[in-house]
Amino acid sequence: MTSPEITIREVFDGVQEIKQTLAGMQGHKDTLDDHETRIRGLEKLVWKAAGVAATVGAALGWLIPLLLA
Questions:
Q1: What distance in Å separates the CA atoms of residue 69 and residue 63, rounded to the nearest whole number?
Q2: What's the rounded Cα separation, in Å, for the pair 7 and 1?
Q3: How do residues 20-54 score in pLDDT, each as one tens digit?
């Protein structure tokens, strides 16, 4: 099986295409930063929910035996 030959010109054209794509993304930096901020907020919410669930579970684990006794 022979591998396809890739010329230096094809590599250069590919690199130029990537550069153009990245240059077009410069205007979206604010959107990306906002997205990261929203994800961090959701992560904090998940940790808070886990803390509340652990506290409620511990309280119920202590309270149920007292009520059944």
A1: 10
A2: 19
A3: 988 887 777 777 678 888 899 999 999 999 999 99
CA atoms of 53 and 61, how far apart (whole Å): 12
Q: In the chain, where are the structural domains located?
A: 30-69
Record the pTM.
0.47
Of 38, 57, 61, which Cα lies nearest the Cα of 49?
Answer: 57
Residue linked to tokens 């059944």:
68
Integer CA distances (angstroms), 63 to 37, 53, 54, 56, 66, in order: 39, 15, 14, 10, 5
Helix (H, G, I), strand (E, B) or coil at 62: helix
Structural Rg of the chain based on CA atoms: 27
Type of residue found at 35: H
What is the rounded distance in angstroms from the CA atom of residue 49 to the CA atom of residue 4?
Answer: 54
